[in-house]
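Example S7 (structure tokens).
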């Protein structure tokens, strides 16, 4: 090829070659400039798929026009049909050669990462995912500017790629877990790859090694990289956090986009997934569930309870940020994933431990770990009588504060624990109740009620027993697992008794706020309860969550609801109910694209979460995407064990997608189920609305009103009832619930407060 003239270019020398191209330096005979020509390797020149990818590279790169991407001048063919790309020639060296000489200074690594992030961000805004970000594809010019090369396997938005089954595209050392699994990828796969590159720049080593191809893949999917602090001393705190977040195994846990990652690289606060994420404060901690070390291995409830109580006590320490229970407990059994815990939860320290019981003896061990370097800050072991558990918890909390105080906190005060149980047996029963209640299943809630009722019988002045009982009854009603008229009055009695004993309990005010909104439809009282809960504990994620969904969204105050769910998500980033509720608010606001994005993020956290499949299916149905709706809803029915809400949603989707016979069969099954157990009349109304039988739908909504069905609270915003808007009977029902003329009322209120209407 040297000396050959193709089109109006004379080839001068070979610069290099790779799997997807051979690059030559050439002279442009028309314009008198030096350029680079990239040809397909000879063995691929007749490969139709390779030629398609080659053309794809030219299209993708030429559309960018960004200082940090390679400029493409044209694509052409030689007289004998060889295809080539003409691009600018840059003098300098690849990042691969630069790293080969050793780790880069932090400021240089950040500068290179920022240039790369800016170029990729432009590509992402145009719907282009690079999919092969690695040091050999990053050219550092003599002026120090990064140029992103080789868009040969880039993917365009909306493009369907037909990849051979079992084949993985990309360079194994830098591919994301989803890419390694052969799944569809989006912009977050480039974020992962840039995280790998940044790790390698800072340490001189690849984070996932293993020699053999399959060993590297295994490490990418299942292991955490060696902490960078073990390889390089004195790395800036925020860089360690950026890398940890970029290398989170699941896409949702990474930065939402590269603009946010660039802000974090610069040490700025980051807005991601609707929340502000700053580098982890040194005064921050996560408490993992303690490990059951008892011979019978039957103390899981007790171990979880010990950790939960420590979270409660530590949350009251001024200046100490404590990860929420839900998010911390998702790392149960994964105490070794230090980098991911640090990156996802945004905390600097970790408390973990174990509990062993034998008769009346109790051994509790605990240790405090610095997540930046994995070093142990403190450890302790307590061998006591089981009745000393309260003193042990308080002593652990005080020791943690004392350990962190010299460099982190301005106080040594440990808040008093909430009202203690009168004896260990009562406390043990209470922990069993919370354990079962946290499962959020019908069986779990029923068992928790039995435990809390026994607690109350033995200790009638122990407020925590009434708090737990109120929570369990409210959840049974809200989830539609029991007739509201049976459980909500019991919840009210328990909650009011709890307030008599302990008025400053945010959990009770939150449960009352929920009850008064979805059961009483007493909207003003409900808001007072929610606001009181938030006043008592602004860091209580459930209060923000329930206020957003059970009150604000039902009243069409969507902007406020989004802000509350943003705060809840910031406080509890791995909570599946909070995550799915972000999509639910968009669904109620008829912003279906945003709803789908939120549900997808939830499923990336846990693909077995039935509720996310349920609401995604309903969203698809409202968008007229029937086949996708049926796939999601059948999955929801399967995962939920045939829950009535999933059953009804599937029937509605069948009805609106023209499968009337199947819809009527499912409706008959739902009605038969209603004769055996509680099924909200509102669910039956949904199916009739889908079938277009308006009178029947309205009659069942009126029945739902008569039985005070909890899910009726959202009748004014649920898109599945849009076909009934304008019906006088629906207007009358809304008036009875205090929801008539809602829009006008809200406008008057917000204008009076000096705000714009939501």
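Recovered sequence:
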């Amino acid at each position: 090829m040297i000396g050959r003239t193709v089109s109006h270019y004379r080839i001068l020398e070979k610069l290099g070659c790779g799997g997807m191209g051979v690059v030559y330096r050439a002279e442009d005979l028309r314009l008198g400039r030096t350029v680079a020509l990239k040809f397909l390797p000879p063995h691929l020149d007749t490969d139709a798929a390779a030629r398609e990818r080659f053309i794809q590279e030219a299209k993708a790169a030429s559309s960018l026009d960004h200082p940090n991407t390679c400029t493409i001048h044209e694509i052409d063919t030689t007289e004998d049909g060889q295809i080539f790309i003409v691009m600018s020639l840059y003098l300098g060296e690849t990042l691969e050669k630069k790293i080969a000489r050793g780790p880069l200074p932090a400021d240089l690594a950040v500068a290179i990462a920022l240039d790369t992030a800016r170029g990729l961000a432009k590509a992402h805004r145009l719907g282009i995912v690079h999919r092969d970000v690695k040091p050999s594809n990053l050219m550092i010019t003599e002026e120090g500017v990064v140029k992103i090369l080789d868009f040969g396997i880039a993917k365009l938005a909306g493009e369907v790629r037909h990849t051979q089954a079992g084949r993985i595209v990309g360079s194994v050392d830098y591919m994301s877990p989803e890419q390694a699994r052969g799944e569809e990828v989006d912009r977050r796969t480039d974020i992962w790859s840039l995280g790998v590159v940044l790790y390698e720049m800072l340490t001189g080593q690849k984070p996932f090694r293993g020699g053999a191809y399959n060993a590297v893949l295994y490490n990418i999917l299942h292991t955490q990289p060696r902490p960078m602090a073990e390889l390089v001393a004195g790395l800036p705190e925020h860089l360690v956090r950026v890398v940890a977040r970029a290398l989170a195994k699941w896409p949702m846990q990474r930065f939402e986009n590269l603009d946010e990652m660039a802000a974090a690289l610069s040490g700025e606060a980051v807005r991601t997934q609707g929340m502000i994420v700053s580098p982890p404060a040194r005064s921050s901690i996560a408490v993992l569930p303690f490990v059951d070390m008892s011979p019978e291995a039957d103390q899981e409830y007790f171990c979880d309870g010990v950790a939960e109580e420590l979270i409660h006590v530590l949350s009251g320490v001024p200046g100490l940020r404590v990860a929420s229970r839900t998010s911390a407990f998702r790392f149960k059994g994964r105490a070794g994933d230090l980098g991911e815990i640090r990156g996802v939860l945004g905390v600097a320290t970790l408390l973990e431990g174990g509990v062993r019981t034998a008769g009346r003896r109790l051994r509790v061990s605990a240790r405090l770990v610095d997540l930046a370097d994995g070093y142990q800050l403190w450890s302790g072991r307590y061998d006591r009588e089981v009745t000393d558990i309260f003193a042990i918890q308080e002593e652990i909390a005080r020791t943690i504060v004392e350990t962190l105080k010299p460099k982190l906190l301005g106080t040594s005060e440990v808040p008093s624990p909430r009202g203690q149980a009168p004896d260990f047996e009562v406390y043990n029963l209470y922990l069993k109740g919370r354990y079962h209640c946290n499962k959020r299943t019908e069986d779990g809630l029923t068992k928790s009620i039995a435990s809390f009722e026994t607690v109350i019988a033995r200790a009638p002045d122990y407020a925590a027993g009434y708090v737990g009982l109120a929570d369990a009854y409210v959840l049974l009603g809200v989830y539609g697992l029991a007739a509201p008229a049976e459980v909500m009055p019991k919840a009210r009695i328990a909650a009011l008794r709890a307030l008599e004993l302990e008025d400053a309990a945010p959990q009770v005010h939150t449960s009352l706020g929920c009850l008064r909104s979805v059961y009483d439809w007493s909207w003003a009282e409900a808001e007072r309860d929610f606001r009181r809960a938030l006043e008592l504990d602004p860091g209580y994620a459930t209060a923000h969550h329930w206020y957003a969904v059970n009150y604000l969204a039902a009243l069409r105050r969507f902007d406020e609801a989004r802000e509350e769910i943003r705060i809840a998500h910031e406080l509890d980033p791995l909570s599946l109910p909070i995550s799915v509720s972000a999509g639910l608010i968009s669904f109620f606001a008829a912003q279906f694209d945003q709803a789908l994005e939120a549900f997808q993020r939830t499923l990336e956290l846990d693909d077995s979460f039935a509720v996310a499949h349920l609401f995604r299916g309903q969203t698809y149905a409202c968008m007229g995407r029937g086949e996708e709706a049926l796939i999601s809803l059948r999955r929801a029915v399967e995962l939920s064990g045939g829950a009535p809400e999933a059953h009804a949603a599937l029937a509605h989707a069948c009805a609106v997608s023209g499968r009337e016979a199947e819809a009527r069969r499912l409706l008959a099954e739902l009605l038969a189920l209603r004769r055996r157990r509680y099924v909200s009349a509102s669910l039956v109304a949904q199916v009739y609305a889908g079938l277009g039988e308006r009178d029947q739908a309205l009659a069942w909504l009126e029945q739902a009103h008569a039985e005070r069905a909890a899910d009726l609270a959202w009748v004014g915003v649920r898109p599945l009832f849009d076909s009934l808007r304008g019906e006088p009977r629906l207007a009358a029902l809304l008036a009875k619930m205090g929801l008539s003329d809602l829009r006008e009322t809200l406008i008057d209120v917000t204008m009076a407060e000096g705000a714009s209407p939501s």
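Notes on this example. Residues 156-168, 269-279, 407-412, 741-758 have pLDDT under 50 and may be disordered.
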